[in-house]
Structure prediction request, 355 residues.
Amino acid sequence: MITIVLTNRNRSLSLISKCFASLRGQNNQNFKCIVVDYGSNPQNQKLLQSEINKHANFELILCSTQKQLWCKSRAINLALKQCDTTYFFVGDIDMIYHPHFIEELHILKDKHKVVYFKVGFLSENESNTDKDFEDYQIAFPSNEEATGMTLYKTEILKSINGYDEFYHGWGAEDTDVHVRLENANIEVAYFDREILMLHQWHPKAYRGKDSFEPFHFKLESINHKYLEFTRKTKKVVANTNFEWGHYNASDYSVLEAPQQEFLITNELADVKGFIHNMFLDHAHQVISVKIKEHSEYNSLKQTAKKLIHKKTKEFLPLEEVNDLLLEAIIADKRNAAYSYRYSVQKNEITLVIKL
Prediction:
């Protein structure tokens, strides 16, 4: 049997239903599917649960990570950690799968330890139609640089500690796994004989000015630079300083009652002092911090001091404070339960975290 993992955060139910229907219509039903919902809003999670209940071989893992950065690697690892089948396929909840897809996976698993697949992308109009797989008109295909859809021998993926959970936001986590496997001299084969998956069009999620969602403005670039070092260092095993595939639901219930509350400003010393002191010395406590602009930030007094070369306070724009704080969470507290809000309109950051 093969375990298929699909990850989700707030994808439309119509898109998900098409994906599930294509799996329900497989001519080989020798698989089980684990859907990991990593922080969809509660209403979407209820709808997803109702949809999952229609499928006997589907399982749902719900995570209360709505106010955290998206982490596809961790979502995948949650399913991998409990996987008890010999093979593990990382799919996409945006896909429509060919009726013979599972059958082809069973053929390929006997030939390759790791194999990934070419994908066909549909236009918006084509995605909104309901057709047999072969009748869809593909807008364009992926190439071998698109590494997301991959079949693994489970023990091999577990031996390298799964997906690297440093990667947050979007980008590079799929390629990272392939690079580390190749560093371990494991062949990664590319299947492009035919297209067995169609990617449904959906709008890209952009962060609006009125959004409170956590967002790092340069994270994609950092992810790709991190990947470069994985290549250069011939890294194989990831997540060596953290438990991978970790999620404790009970940790999230205590975020509503922080034990200590702090108010700090965007003064550089204030921000760095908080990060180094709180994150290192307050283990097992739930703390809350609110960050606002300092009263002297961009003041005439500070500007005048700069002009006459007098010592001034050093400030960071709140956007940079946001990035610095999220980087600290990724680097040191990525397994912690936390709730993060950044209001651009109010110029305010609020973090509650169980250290």
